[in-house]
Amino acid sequence: MTKRFTLEEAKQIFKNEGYTLLNEEYIDSRQPLDTLCPCGHSWQTKMTNFQRGSRCEECKNKEKLEGKELKIFPYPTTQ
Fold it and tell me: Residue 41 gets which letter from DSSP?
């Protein structure tokens, strides 16, 4: 059985990772939570997902793009 957190405990879990929990009420780990990432992106997650390592999708996608060179292929033309 998972531990039920108070609102302050939940906010601290997010704060420890550099995130901000915006909700003013915390019900349980399956509740959608409004969150701000360290870069300022607003998104929703659940406590269970956050504890499993789920983080901001925008930042994750940005890291993927910055870490790889984009390959541009010419568009095939038909004659």
Answer: -
